[in-house]
Amino acid sequence: MGIEPIELATIAAIFALAGTVKGVTGLGLPTVSLALLTIAFDLSTAMVLLLVPSFVTNLWQAMIGGQFWLLLNTNRTFFLTASCTVWIGGLALSALNWALLSALLGFLLITYSAASLTGFRPQIGDQQKTIWGTSCGTLNGILTGMTGSFVVPGVLYLQALGLDRNALVQAMGILFTLSTISLGISLQSSTLLSATHLGISSIAVAPALAGMYIGQQLRKNMSEVIFRKIFLITILLLGVYIIVNNILEF
Length: 250
Known about the structure:
Number of strands: 0
Strand content: under 5%
Number of domains: 1
Order of helices and strands: HHHHHHHHHHHHH
Structural class: mainly alpha
């Protein structure tokens, strides 16, 4: 995969912006970067470029909070199915039209944004965790393999558990970290991953971390609630754009 200087600059800018969003809100790096990369590159390239920055930033998020083993143990069915079913979705990468998969990504972005903006918060009790954890984990894994997006329905499921903010952020970090690892394995098995891909993805870690630092500084002087609404509306509009742009390619 040949990358021109302007493309490298684009990748760096995208991850710096995505890192800034994550620094302010505590989430959004995979979502923002994937949405913007899909506009600048094809879906498979976007998924590969996402791998290393997503892994590094979300591993840190997964380990900080003091509840790693508790969250992993109490939600093991969800995390296991979300990780182990990514390869099923990965099979679609060579079987389905790329424009169709990109449009699906747009739909997932819209779904996540709309649910968050409207305050959609289903509740799942302890007796329902096994069936919902298995169902949502399986669907999340398949959609991750097909589109590279980790959020639907995984994040909605975690929100429905009624976790406090710190536990929720850490649980999302665990989900995103495990999903990133599984996605990398799936892309490798589909021969879409190479040393060149990983090299470029690794370079993107620096602007992502720089963006996170900037975002953390901005959070001290701005309303996180307002910024998060702007972020969600932007993701919704990006989802609409991705769908429209790819429908024209059918």
